[in-house]
Design brief:
The structure is a single chain. Helix content is 82%, strand content 1%. It has 23 helices and two strands. The longest helix is centred in the middle third of the chain and has 37 residues, at 273-309.
Length: 543
């Protein structure tokens, strides 16, 4: 990496503080989730819960596993503290270290991807053991189209890590938008130009999106920041990278494997099982991504910097603030979504080949999966406390133990309870991991995950529970009135679903605000201040 002069600040190179970073990432994730929903809506409309849709979703099992095997999901997390320290000591040497990390990541993932591509016919039966032979052959075809995308994700994660070190969050927020946009574009073109090819176009979109969004966009951002990549394989810091990444590679955390386990065991739940779980899980991941993931990613560079300087009290305060504020948003949002799970799934997916029965079944699955959102929220922040201290072994160990403990639950759930049992096993697995990581956080680092913020989270939960019940009553009452006034079909319509979701949201907000005003003013006051600021901004623009 060689400096080319001080770059002019623009969208690609602008830095943000923790609050602005969380907002930028939150908006980016929200837009990404919206695009993901559009993508899944298109899939559901055209393919519903058919065998073709099951095969498409199952085709991601092996590529995603390879990504996690190479610690791809955490590679940027591994590099951030090392790069931060390296740039603080010697900028020129840090650039050489970064170049070596990129080269090793690219070399390893290309070799591994090529091996998986060649062995696809032997691997596919393990990815979806419940599929028939014809579906297995189709799965191999899809798998070989999607696999090359992995060769883009891991090197791209290295460039993203450098952007995190610079506290430049705009491009990481844009990356999933480009990725999802390519899948939608290629999928729609393939569907209408080559309908006989089924979902093949969506598969090509995955690889195109990974190349353009996950790799090219971060590379361009790094270059715009005033640096040029210089190939290099040897650097002494690479030993630390391998040391930190090895636990993540060998230990397969439940939060990394959950989606893969849902697909594997969903294939045993009969035709449509994988699709129904995938649709419901996609909606569940909206609050996880928008609230929890954004807070975790945004807080991590600050936690890493504080840990490197040994500022223990500020580290604990930052951790408590990030985890507590995440729960304050996640708990009310989750409980409202549970109250309206059925209408939400019907409103988003109920068209085309996605039947009313599928909407009902996926609504039940969503309500189960949403039980795990608070646990996802806490672990997103708490796990990064270990990564900030360059401890990847503890989260990997805890996550692996949680995955092993959850496996019997997945087996039992798939065999005896179908897709609902698989969803419940996923919730139990992430709950076990979150409990374990919080206990180890207190035992090893002497820091609680929430501290005094835990009382605020408990108050938010107590205000949200009655609000959720009122919201549930409102949406069910709306369905009953529409059915009584018109017909049963009208009660299942998209318009009725929109009315149910809207009424439940209004009922939840009213009850929550009233309870917060009376029993938890620390929740009520920020809501009022935000409303006043938004009103003032609106009047200012209008004038």
């Amino acid at each position: 990496m060689t400096n080319t002069g001080a770059p002019k600040k623009n969208l690609l190179t602008r830095t943000q503080g923790m609050g602005a970073a969380a907002l930028a990432l939150g908006v980016g994730v929200l837009l990404s989730r919206v695009m993901g929903l559009v993508r899944d809506k298109i899939i559901a409309y055209n393919f519903g819960t058919s065998a073709e849709a099951d095969i498409y979703f199952a085709a991601f099992t092996v590529p995603d596993f390879l990504n996690y095997l190479m610690a791809g999901g955490y590679f940027s997390v591994t590099l951030v503290p090392l790069l931060s320290a390296a740039f603080a000591e010697d900028e020129a040497d840090a650039r050489r270290f970064f170049s070596a990390a990129v080269c090793w990541a690219a070399l390893c993932i290309v070799v591994l991807t090529a091996g998986a591509w060649a062995a696809a016919p032997f691997i596919a039966p393990f990815a979806a053991p419940g599929f028939a032979p014809e579906a297995q052959a189709r799965l191999v075809f899809f798998l070989r189209i999607i696999l090359p995308a992995q060769a883009c994700f891991l090197p791209g994660a290295c460039f993203t890590a450098l952007l995190y070190c610079r506290r430049q969050f705009a491009v990481p927020a844009l990356t999933p938008l480009v990725y999802n946009g390519c899948i939608i574009l290629f999928g729609v073109l393939g569907r209408y130009c080559f309908p006989e090819r089924g979902m093949e176009g969506f598969c090509w979109g995955v690889t195109a999106g990974a190349f353009s969004g996950a790799l090219c966009l971060p590379v361009l951002a790094v270059r715009a920041g005033g640096a040029a990549f210089a190939p290099c394989l040897l650097h002494p810091h690479m030993k630390q990278v391998f040391f930190l990444a090895l636990p993540l590679m060998l230990g397969q955390s439940i939060v990394a494997l959950d989606e893969q386990l849902v697909r594997v065991f969903g294939s045993l739940a009969g035709e449509g099982g994988v699709s129904l779980l995938s649709y419901a899980r996609r909606i569940m991941q909206v609050p996880v991504g928008v609230v929890a993931q954004a807070a975790g990613v945004a807080s991590y560079p600050f936690l890493a910097a504080l840990a490197a300087r040994g500022e223990r009290e500020r580290f604990a305060a930052t951790l408590h603030s990030a985890a507590g504020n995440t729960l304050l948003v996640a708990l009310p949002l989750t409980l409202w979504m549970q109250s309206a799970a059925g209408p939400i799934m019907r409103l988003i997916f109920r068209q085309g080949d996605f039947s009313a029965q599928a909407a009902s079944e996926s609504g039940l699955l969503l309500s189960i999966l949403l039980l795990g959102v608070p646990f996802w929220a806490v672990q997103q922040v708490a796990g990064r406390a270990f990564y900030a201290h360059r401890d990847t072994l503890t989260p990997a160990l805890v996550g692996t133990l949680a995955a092993l403990a959850a496996l019997p639950l997945y087996v039992f759930g798939a065999r005896h309870l179908g897709a609902a049992g698989v969803a419940g096993a996923g919730v139990a697995g992430v709950a076990l991991y979150t409990l374990g990581i919080c206990l180890r956080l207190r035992g090893k680092l002497g820091i609680s995950a929430l501290g005094a913020e835990g009382r605020k989270a408990a108050a938010a939960l107590l205000c949200s529970l009655p609000a959720g019940l009122c919201a549930l009553g409102a949406q069910q009452g709306a369905a009953y009135l529409v059915g009584a006034a018109y017909s049963a079909d009208a009660a299942e319509s998209l318009l009725c679903a929109a009315v149910q979701a809207g009424l439940s949201a209004v009922a939840f907000a009213l009850v929550f605000v009233l309870l917060a005003r009376r029993f938890a003013p620390f929740l009520y006051v920020p809501l009022c201040e935000s409303a006043v600021r938004a009103h003032d901004k609106f009047l200012k623009k209008k004038s």
